[in-house]
Amino acid sequence: MTSISTSQMARRLMVALDYPDAEAARGLIRQLEGIPCYMKVGMQLYYQAGPEFVRELKSLGYSVFLDLKMHDIPNTVKGGANSIAKLGVDMFNVHAAGGVKMMESAIQGVEEALASDASLNRPLVIAVTQLTSTDQETMNGEIGIPGSVEKTVVRYAKLAAGAGLDGVVASPLEAEKIKAACGNGFRTVTPGIRPAGSAADDQSRTKTPGQAIAGGSDYIVVGRPITASADPREAAQRILEEMGQGRNAAEADRT
Ligand SMILES: O=c1ccn([C@@H]2O[C@H](COP(=O)(O)O)[C@@H](O)[C@H]2O)c(=O)[nH]1
User: Fold this and answer.
1) Contact residues of ligand 1, CB 6 A cut-off
2) Is 69 a catalytic residue?
3) Is the dihedral of CA 54, 153, 105, 74 positive or negative?
4) Is 253 helix (H, G, I), strand (E, B) or coil?
5) What is the pLDDT of residues 176-210, one digit of tens each?
6) Do the beta carbons of residue 153 and residue 122 sit within 8 Å?
7) What is the pTM (predicted TM-score) of this model?
8) Residue (of 34, 37, 41, 32) closest to 12 by Cα position
9) CA nearest 100: which of 80, 67, 127?
10) What tens digit of pLDDT does each residue of 119-169 get?
C-alpha cells in the first residue's frame, strides 16, 4: 500500500461487498489487495455465501462488519447475536427501532458467547437509526414519525448508548450531533457516502468522503462508488485521499 496515513484511513473505510455470490466478491477483493479496509457483508452476499465466506474474509486478515440489521423479539435477537459473536466478526448491527430491551438482549447474546469460548473477541454492536435512503418527507409522511430526521436519529442513538451498544449507523449529516449527545467514543458508522459528482442512487442523506470524515464519522461505508467503478482500486484510493484531506481539514480547524 501507500503511506502510513493512507493505511490508517483505510481502516476507517468499509467496503460494501454487495454481490450475488462469493466468487463475485472475491473479484473485488483481489483488486483491492493490500488495502487494509473493513469488509462489509450484507444480506445479499450472506444469504448466498453464509458463514463460510465470513470465515474466509477473516482468514485473509480483514476486519468484518456483518450488516444483517437484526430486528426481532429480544429472545430471537439474543440468539442471533450469540451465533454472530461465535462467527468472530468485528462488528454487527441491530435496528434501534426494536427498542432498548431488544438491544440489551443483543449484548447478552454476545456476552454468553464470550463466556462460552475465551478465544472469542468481543464484536462491536451497533444500531441502525434511520436508513440513509430515508428523507424527511418519507419519514414524516409515509413512515409517520414526526419531527426532523436529525432529532429522530439522535434519539435512537441515545437509546442505543443507554442499552450499552458501541455506536450507530447513521448518515454523515448526523455524525456531529450524535457525538455531541452520546460522547466522542460512541462510534458513528456512516453509509450515504458519495464522492463529488457521483450518482446518489437510492441514497438520500449523503456527504462526500472528505466531508464525512471532517464531520465526525468514525467509519465510512462505500459500496457502488467503488464496486460499480470501471477501476475499483483507483476509486478506493481516491476515496482514501479524500478521507485524508477531510481529516487534515478537521485538524486544522481544531488548531
Ligand atoms: O442506513 C443505511 C444502512 C446500511 N446501508 C448499507 O451501506 C451500503 C451502502 O452502499 P452504496 O452502494 O454506497 O449506496 C449498502 O450495503 C447498504 O445496505 C446504507 O446504505 N444505509
Assistant:
1) 16, 18, 42, 128, 131-132, 169, 191, 201, 203, 221-225
2) yes
3) negative
4) helix
5) 999 999 999 999 999 999 999 999 999 999 999 99
6) no
7) 0.97
8) 37
9) 127
10) 999 999 999 999 999 999 999 999 999 999 999 999 999 999 999 999 999
